[in-house]
Amino acid sequence: MTDTLLHAYVPLLLWTGLGLLLVPFLPEAFPRLLGRGLYWVGVPVQIFTLAHQTNFSVRATLVPVITLWGLLAGLAIATLTLWGLDCRSTLLTPKAPSTPDQLSNHPENPWHPASRRGAFLLASILGNTGFVGLSVVPTFIDEPYRGWIVLYSVAHNVLGTSMV
Q1: Which pLDDT value is given to residue 17?
Q2: pTM, full prediction
Q3: How far is the C-alpha of 39 from the C-alpha of 58, rounded, in Å?
């Protein structure tokens, strides 16, 4: 089991560490371009390669349903969390400040800006499980069950992207 873990995570940690060491010496736009390239080219190539090596004789018709359920569960949990934070903020926030001294001590809800709420919802729904997990999980799964991984990844990317 240790050998499997090392085989799965050493390349991931090695490339991430190399990126952290090299990023100060690279042009400022390079990380953004690399990220977009990996998203638009790397992920489809990774899915295609894994699909090419996979035996699809395993019946996996429930995968899209499970994926959709997972995406909706992430949305529901994130929405309930934001709602709970709003309720907590309104309960803990004192009445509107009336003097300048009270105004400077008035706490503001950090989750109020729409950009933060949107980023939190996106991260909760999509959660990056379709990208990092796709490269690591095949190491831990036996050959006959890799069809589930490919179908989950494709369904996650198609359904998740079209929903959001």
Answers
A1: 92
A2: 0.56
A3: 28
Distance of alpha carbon 93 from alpha carbon 40, whole angstroms: 44
Q: Rounded mean pLDDT of the chain?
A: 76
Residue written as token pair 């042009």: 27
Tell the residue number behind the tokens 């989750």, with chain if given.
111
- 3-state helix/strand/coil string of 36-69: HHHHHHHHHHHHHHHHHCCCCCCCCCCHHHHHHH
Which helix (H) or strand (E) element contains residue 6?
helix 2-22
Cα–Cα distance for residue pair 80/83, rounded to 1 Å: 5
Cα(152)–Cα(62) distance, rounded to whole angstroms? 10
Q: Which of 163, 141, 133, 145 is nearest to 43 (CA)?
A: 133
